[in-house]
Amino acid sequence: MAGAPRFPARPIVVHAPPFDEASGGAIVLHCLVDRLRRVGHEAYVHPRPVLKDPPAWPAIALRTRCRIGVRNLRRRVQARWSYQTHPSLDTPRAPRRLLREAIAVYPEVVSGNPMRSRHVVRWLLHRPGFFRPNTRFGPDEYTFFYHHAFREGLDRVDPDNLLRVRWVRDDVYFDRGLPGGGACRLIRKGRGAGLAEVPENDDAVLLDGMSHAQMAEVFNRTRILYCHDPYTMYAFYAALCGCIPVVLPQPGVTREQWRAREEDRWGIAYGEDDIAWALDTREALISRYQREREEEDRMVQDFLGKLARRFG
After folding, report:
1. Which of 33, 51, 142, 137 is nearest to 93 (CA)?
2. 104 and 121 Cβ atoms separated by less than 8 Å
3. Domains in the chain: how many in total?
4. Does the residue 152 lie in any domain?
5. Can you list the positions of beta strands (E) in the chain?
6. Could you tell me the CA-to-CA distances from 37 to 145, 171, 201, 271 in Å, in that order?
7. Are residues 28 and 155 in the same domain?
8. Do 158 and 193 belong to one domain?
9. Rg (the chain; Cα; Å)
10. pLDDT digits (tens, 9 = 90+) for 245-296
């Protein structure tokens, strides 16, 4: 639209859990604030406690529900007073006076509008309902998505509203030219996808719980990563290290249903029969990574322009 402002007039506040190097969702929420501030827009994080949802009544006793409620209250207090950020990212906390009029950004796991903002953006970092089936979205939210697969079936979401920012640890994950043999295995969110089962007598190195440095070492010394989590960034990290990421197919989900666009499958095998494809397209994946660094800057600019037109 001609004459539209480049930036919205309002600050942006991202509702984010404490920074956690093991949590892709936490990382990208903090990264978004950092990237917005780097291009000159006023942006902040607002602490979101990691709460436990009790089962629906009357699945558990009242005493148990009260116990969960007390623990959640403690988590809210902890999030307020001991909130973790990363020193390399510019992520100041939002003054409370800004919350009402700011543009609030919520991931798909947050129900409703806890900051009570007048202007709400929903950022789909996974398929809605995957982690929290009972999450409520507002009728007037402006929705963006991190991956095309996350908006499938959501016709109301503009297919051009792709917003992706990454904190890529290419200082840790790179190919050291070491001889690789055997396999490693990553479960993570595969539990929620029904892919947590490990074969009997499995000798693959289990990566869950390892630091980035430890994972990079294992990726460089093994040939195959069996990845139970279908959308994790660690599949890309494995490819950077020369390890072949093999995503375990979900029952009833074809390769094209997993990732519809061919370029989103470069360098990654969907099942062991796809390993040759992963090897043949690895270099295309690495080249795409370099291009996407520039594309992310454009996405952030487009995001700001769209918010300016929507919210002023």
Report:
1. 33
2. yes
3. 2
4. yes
5. 12-16, 43-47, 103-107, 119-124, 142-145, 183-186, 205-206, 224-227, 244-247, 269-270
6. 20, 23, 50, 40
7. yes
8. no
9. 20
10. 999 988 888 999 999 889 999 999 999 999 999 999 999 998 888 888 889 9
Is the separation of the CB atoms in 19 and 86 below 8 Å?
Answer: yes
pLDDT tens digits, residue range 115-126? 999 999 999 999
- Whether 177 maps to a domain, the answer reads no
Compute the distance between CA of residue 22 and CA of residue 145 in angstroms, rounded to an integer. Answer: 21
Residue 6 lies in a domain: no
What is the layout of strands, in order, in the sheet containing 142-145?
A: 43-47, 12-16, 103-107, 119-124, 142-145
Tokens of 176: 């050291």
For residues 312 and 309, give the distance between their C-alpha atoms in angstroms, rounded to a whole number.
6
User: What is the domain extent for residue 270?
Assistant: 183-280
Residues in the chain: 312
In a domain, 274, yes or no: yes
Taking residue 209's Cβ as centre, other Cβ atoms within 10 Å add up to 10
> If we measure between CA atoms, which residue out of 127, 282, 123, 268 comes closest to residue 193?
127
